Amino acid sequence: MAKCADCHPKTRSTRPRSCPHCYAWVVGKNRYCIACSGWTYRFPPGTCLTCGAEFFLRDGRCRACWVQARLLEGTELANPDVRIDPRAYFPLITRTGHQLELGGLKRSSQLAYPKWRYRQDRLTVAGEALVVGPCPGEQLRLFEARRDYRCFEKARHADYANLTLVAARVVAERLAELRGWTTEVCRLTDRGLVVVLSGHQVGELISYLDMLPLAADRKVNVERVAEVLDDMGILVDDRPDSFECWLAARSQDLAPEIAEDVRDWLRSLHEGGPRHRSHSRSSTWGKMSAVHPLLLEWSGRHRHLREITRDDIQAAVDAIHGVERKALLNGLRSLFRFMRRRRQIFRDPTMGIKGGKLERPPIIPLPRQSYTDAVAAAITPAQRLMLALAAVHAAPRPGIKLLTLDDLDFSNRKITLAGHTRPLDDLTHDLLINYLFFRHRTWPRTANRHLFLTRVTAHETGPVSDYWCHAQFAGLSASLEQMRIDRHLEEALAGGGDPARLAAVFGISEFTAIRYAEAARMLLEGPLETASRPEPGP
Known about the structure:
The N and C termini lie far apart (121 Å). The longest helix has 20 residues, at 322-341. Strands 9-10-11 form a 3-stranded antiparallel beta sheet, with no helix packed on it. It has 538 residues and is mainly α. It has helices at 34-42, 63-73, 90-96, 154-157, 163-179, 183-197, 208-211, 214-217, 222-232, 242-251, 256-271, 281-299, 310-318, 322-341, 368-377, 381-391, 397-401, 426-442, 466-471, 480-494, 499-506, 510-524, 527-532; strands spanning 17-18, 25-26, 45-47, 54-56, 121-125, 128-132, 206-207, 235-236, 408-409, 414-417, 420-423. A hairpin with a 6-residue loop joins β1 (17-18) and β2. The chain has 23 helices and 11 strands. α5 packs across α9 (222-232), α11 (256-271) crosses α14 (322-341) and α16 (381-391) packs parallel to α20.
């Protein structure tokens, strides 16, 4: 037989809750707070003459009204020279309301009550003129706290009639139609909207970090939920900037003054300015990686970059050679030119320092085993198509990731890569057909016009990432870039080292075509080619 909570206190919940009479926040197994429990034994029940509550009354007033009257007695409304009975403040309670509190805490006489201020309205109570004003429209927030949506229970907390939730569902349906979301994505997005917006109040903003735990705990598609909330204008994207996190990690070991200048320099490169364009993240990371070891060494001997001389830079540059020397000097030039523009130094110490002529490595053909390994690793339709585009059409990685459906012309058997139109061979044509069937089966409702898709970009409109393109053939002896270079060299060898033909076939610049043509002529005139030729007769 189930035990009654009223008869068996041990079965009552000990979770924090509000006292049903004074509304104080209490923790315990009793129904009321300690003060209200004693109040019930001392006074008779009835209807409060001030607030109309049904409870035990003292002189016709409930305990909540008596507590509020004493609070008003301790504020600036009271005359410190004249003692007024707390009963004189009962008429003010209808305007001020009841101040919420934490139950079970013993008040100290040393604690000052909040200084409430009201507009200059006059009210006479018990012969005394008091200053009163309107009651605030809402309860002030006691402290800042992050929401924990993992405590959401559908049976108890779901509010499908919430106006914000109803509007969010309409926005989600519109975005699903525009972006081509699948049924599963729509279901997970709707689940997240119900969890986040069931208790939403008008004007409340939703934090992105508060929703992140839902991805693992509730299997909610947080990205799509954030997209809907951002379209409605109620999302606060408080995620830390990855660039700032990287910047703080890379500069934490430097001297404070040097670190501050380096952070300003990198932010200027990343964000750009009125007289210089912004650099990509890879370019910014490369410059910092080149100069970071030298900055660590300088931080042990100097406090500021103003102390660096030309001899220090010359000694650092002379210690290395090749590509590392060129990258270090380029990074130092960018750093000190930035400081010179900001008038932090009088003269650029990198002026006049030569980086040296960088000799490019010779272009040699790839071994046949590299193509064999790449063909064996290409097991998906996307990998096979990417391999054909790089090895047959010499398509660069940016051209592959930005390829769209509009660049395919099956009627004329042509394809446009990086703005250059090429004929479509039978192998690439068949691989394109197979991949398009796979693409339609996997994402039938996608609205993304890019040819290559992932499970993330299929519900968006942007291209795939560089990391995804690199990861398709990671760990092999030859990358897509090396296959593209080898295809250029192969065409140059077939054309006898003619740069005009090479530029017309692949649409590359004349300088690049001349470089491949020179490499092809060196291979054609090499010892192996000369030895294979028959010697002229007498």
